[in-house]
Structure formats: C-alpha cells, structure tokens
Amino acid sequence: MSATTTKARFERYKNLEFILGALLTGGICLLVVFSDLLFPGGGEKIDLSARLLAPFASMDHPFGTDPLGRDVMARVIAGGKISLQVGLLSVAGAVVIGVSMGLISGYYRGFWDMVVMRFADVQLALPFILLAITFIAIVGGGLTNMIILLIISQWVQYARLVRGSVLALRDREFIQSARAIGVKDINILFRHLLPNLIGPVIVLMTLNVANNILLESSLTFLGLGVDPLTPSWGGILADGRTYLQNAWWVSVFPGLAILVTVLGLNLLGDWLRDSLDPTGRTSR
Amino acid sequence: MARFLINRFLQTIFVIFVVTLVVSFAIRLTGDPALMLAQGAGSVSEDDLARIREGLGLNQPFLIQYADFLRGFFTLDFGRSFLGGTPVSQLIGAALPATVMLAFAVMFVSIAVSIPLGIKAAVSRGKWADQAIRIVSLIGLSFPNFWLAIMLVLLFSITLQWLPPSGMDGFASFLMPAFTMGIILTATNVRLVRTAMLETLQSQYIMVARAKGLSENVVLYKHALRNCAIPLVTYFGLQFGGLLGGIVVIERVFNWPGLGTLAFDAVGARDYPVLQAVITILSMLIVGVNLLVDIVYGLIDPRIRTE
After folding, report:
1. Which of A17, A102, B98, B114 minimizes the number of CB atoms within 10 Å of its CB?
2. Hey, are the CB atoms on B158 and A244 less than 8 Å from each other?
3. What is the CATH number of domain A30-280?
4. Is the pTM of this model over 0.80?
5. Domains of chain B as residue ranges with CATH
6. Distance from CA of residue B156 to its chain's centroid?
7. A137 to chain B: which residues are within 8 Å by CB?
8. Helix B2-27, helix A128-139: angle, nearest 10
C-alpha cells in the first residue's frame, strides 16, 4: 500500500474520532445542563402505582422505573450533574496548583524542587482508593470533599509533566534572551514558558476529566462519595445492585451513561494528543 | 552502578518511612475506636471509654504508638486487631495471597491478550485492523470496572448461572474478577505493545531477518518481541501499583477475601492496627516492584544509571 492512502485513512480515522467524541460528550453535556427543563423535578417524584416498570413498558418511562416508581431516565440525566461537576472542578483545581508548582520547581530547581518531587514519590506509593478511604473517614463524604480529595491526589501529575517540560525549555535561547533583556520572572514563567508546554497539559486534562468521573462514581458506588440521597451515577448503581435480580435496568442505564461520557472524553483526548502532543508525553 | 543502587534503595526506604508516618498519623484522625467498640454495649461512661483506650494502648502519645508500630513492623508483628483480638499478621497472611493471586491472574490474562493484539496492530499500522483495535481499546479504557463486574454477575451468575457471583472458591471464581480488571489493563497494554513494536519493526535487524526469508511469525515473535521486551517489562511492572489499587474496588464487588475487603472492614471499625498494616504492605509492594523494575532496567540499560 502506498504511503499516501495510509495517511489519508489515518486522517479519516482521526476525523471520525473527533466527530464521535464531540457528539457523545456534547450530547451528554447538553442533556445534563438542560435536565431541569427536560425533566422538571429531576425524577424524584415517587409513584408507587408505577413500580418496577420494565424499559419501554410505558412511553412515559423509556428506561423503566425503580422500586419507588421513580423514572430511571430522569434520575440518570439529573445524576450527571454530580459527575460533570466533580470531573470539571477537580481537574481545574489540580491544574492550577500542579502547573504553578511544576513551573516554579522546574525553573528555580534547588530545595523547593526536591521537596515537591519527594512529595510526589510518596504520593505515587499510596494506592488512590486507600488514600480515599482514609481521607473520607477523616473529613466525611460529600461533593466538596470529593473534589478536594481528587485535587490532592492529582496535582502531582501536572507538576511532574510541567516540570519535565520546563527543564527542557529553560536553557533555550528564547528564555535566555528574555532573561537577558530583563523580563520579570513571573512573565517568563507565565508568558514565555507556559504557552510552550500547555499542549500536553490540555491532553492530560481531558483524560483526567474522564478518569475522575470514573473515580467519583466508583467511590460513590462504594458508599464513600456524595450523599446517597442525591441522584448520581454511582449512587443509582449501588442502589440498583440490591435488586439486580428483579430490575436489571436500574443498574444498566447509569453505567451506560458513565461509559458513554468517559468514552466521548477519551476519544477527544486521543484526538487532541495527536494534534497537541506529538511526542506522546501523555501516553498511557 | 553501586551508587545508583544505593541511591535508589535509600530513596525507597525514605518513601516507605514517610508513608508509614503519614498513614499512622492520618488513621488516628478518623475517629475513636473506643466509641465504635462501645456502641453495642448500651450506656457507657467516660471511665469505661478511658479504660478501653488504655487497653488498646491509645492513651499513649502518638510518637510512642508510632515507635511501637515500627518496632513490631521489623519483627512482622503488627499487633492485634481491635475487633476480636486476632493477630494482624494472621489476618494479613490469609488476605495477602488472595489479592496477589488475583493480581497475577489479571496480569497474565492482560499480557496474554495484549501482546498478539498489539503486534497485529503494529504490523497493520494504519489499516482497518489497527484502527479497529485502537477503537476497541479506547472503549475498554472507558468501562467503569465496578459496573462491568455487576453486568457480568447479571449475565453469568443470575441469568445463565454458570459462575459463582462472589467469594474465592476454585478456578471458576477467578474468571469474572480477573476479566473485569483485565479488560481495562489490556486496553492500556495493547497500545504500549503497539508503540514498542512499531519502533522495533523499523530497525535493520528486522529487515535482515525478513531478507533471510524467515517466516513472519519467527520474525515477529522471536526477533522483534524479544527486543522490545525490556520497555514492556518496565511498563508492566509500573502498572502493578495501579492494579493493586483497582483490585480493592473489585474485591468489594465480588466479596473477595483479600486486602481490600480487609481494609474496608477495618476502616468501618476504626481498627487502626489492621488498616495501618494493610496500607503499609500495599505501599511496600508498589514501591518494591518499582525498585525492582528500576534495578533490572539499570542493569540492562547503562544510560539510566547516570541520571
């Protein structure tokens, strides 16, 4: 096969990846953002006359109902709010802290650099779930604590990634000349270094939003996350598991929602990686 | 080389030391075990609580308790569980093999599947097989593993009744937990194998091997695979830590009698000695495997040592 057709096929594949990723992620986001308009009351209305309806048994409840007669579709879509909030806010927090730390320790080296990197070593030796169990046992569950936990456990990834790039860039001519003409350190860090290393950071962010949605739902599933009374994907799943034998649909649909959202973000992340991070520093 | 080894070794000791210190300190913030123990007993006076604490050694200052833990650690004596007084080493001795066996089963499944798939993807780079493998591995990466576990139970235990839904009892009970963890790990590994193979396949000795007229399988599996084995072993080793963390969740879903289940029960009861021991042992496993990987890599590739 000639090189051009392989290349053209790869381009077509990348386009497909982008379109699919954007459709899945965009679709879920739109549904979740407008869930209050689509389903006033968020599916919390209890209707004992419509208990345990199978999917499509009634057109009012396309995904069926749970043992309290609540609409599974409305609850799943409302539950997406928790997941998207946790995913976006935790990544935003981790990026701000991690990128600043990485810039500072990579640029100034020295003592501070050593402290940050040894701290990273210790953190990488602790399995996330055990860190989470202990942390939640101390401060309790809930949305805010969950976001804080994810920030604490993930800023290190950004710090390491950024530090590595800064080490490669700090002695390049354009940084040296900026320093020579007296540009302030803060401007060198944020206006000269940051734009040159932001590509891999954005890729890692996309993948981590996906990853954190998975982590949040598994912690909530285990009873360590957000309040079980608030609808969330992990919470509905944990609930549905207790009557798996009679009503499979209560467990199936929240899981599908997680799968579709995470897949959409992973497709976008993969597409972004080929465009923004050709050296593959964020490969996993 | 000796300096590299000593450095790495000291670093590892330091990390383990800090981990144990942080863990012992943090656990003591989670709540009072005396209260948990007294809960079933109806009305308890402050004196009773103080006596329970004294019995558990919790009236000592933190540093003394920590020193005790460290002393016990070197003699493999982690004290006794607050619940029932079973020696912690005995509990760990029962749970550790279950977790490690599951981890190895997962590793084995994942490596056995991802090597042929990764090679296939690399050989047919850019063709439909490569893209299909890539999409499928992305889907695999996106599965919430606890959900996959539930779906497998629904299909194989409830509907078809082929496999036991929980517990560790014989070969059949390994299938669902190992598959659940394996599918996600495999998705990652296929990509690693593909990348490593792509680099190797471009080297001249592969051209020579092909020019000699060797069969394609001999070229791929004997010449190419052996040469990219080193980076692959490193990646697989580094994954071990993440794998152990993930197994904790899966143990919970399948009621697997391993370290994860032990840790969950311990945190509920504020059973400090058990929790402390579980976290320390898991961290040591992770750091130990990383050290081993580094040493092996350093022995094979001299460039690493000077870094």
Report:
1. B98
2. yes
3. 1.10.3720.10
4. yes
5. 99-270 (1.10.3720.10)
6. 26
7. 30-31, 267, 270
8. 30
